């Protein structure tokens, strides 16, 4: 399985937003949408603020592949559902979102750490 390079992780982590474009059923890419991205060690995660019903999230979980761009890094990715030690990773990601986006109003940050957003968390794996 491919891995993010240290340079890619650093550049993406330093950027505020990531453009995410899931692959559609016909193999084309959906129009990119901006999302917040956080890092946990050598892994990157995104959440749909509007939960599993968000159009981009539904598209991402149909084929589990797409394209992302942030910090000058452009990469084809696999979208993995967050499984296993879910509560631990979700708490870790909540803290990462709160730290990275602390300069934004608490209600905005609160939307990305809500239960609905937590239920729409994806790990980004380069392909």
TrEMBL record:
Gene3D superfamilies, alphabetized: Electron Transport, Fmn-binding Protein, Chain A
Protein name, as recorded: Uncharacterized protein
InterPro entries in alphabetical order: Split_barrel_FMN-bd, UCP028498
Superkingdom as given in the UniProt entry: Bacteria
């Amino acid at each position: 399985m491919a891995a993010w390079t240290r340079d890619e992780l650093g550049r993406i982590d330093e950027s505020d937003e990531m453009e995410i474009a899931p692959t559609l059923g016909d193999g084309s890419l959906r129009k990119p949408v901006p999302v917040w991205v956080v890092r946990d060690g050598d892994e990157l995660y995104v959440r749909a603020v509007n939960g599993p019903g968000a159009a981009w999230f539904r598209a991402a979980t149909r084929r589990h592949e797409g394209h992302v761009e942030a910090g000058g890094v452009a990469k084809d990715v696999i979208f993995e559902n967050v499984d296993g030690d879910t509560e631990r990773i979700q708490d870790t990601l909540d803290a990462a979102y709160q730290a990275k986006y602390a300069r934004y109003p608490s209600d905005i940050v609160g939307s990305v750490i809500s239960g609905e957003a937590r239920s729409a968390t994806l790990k980004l794996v380069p392909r």
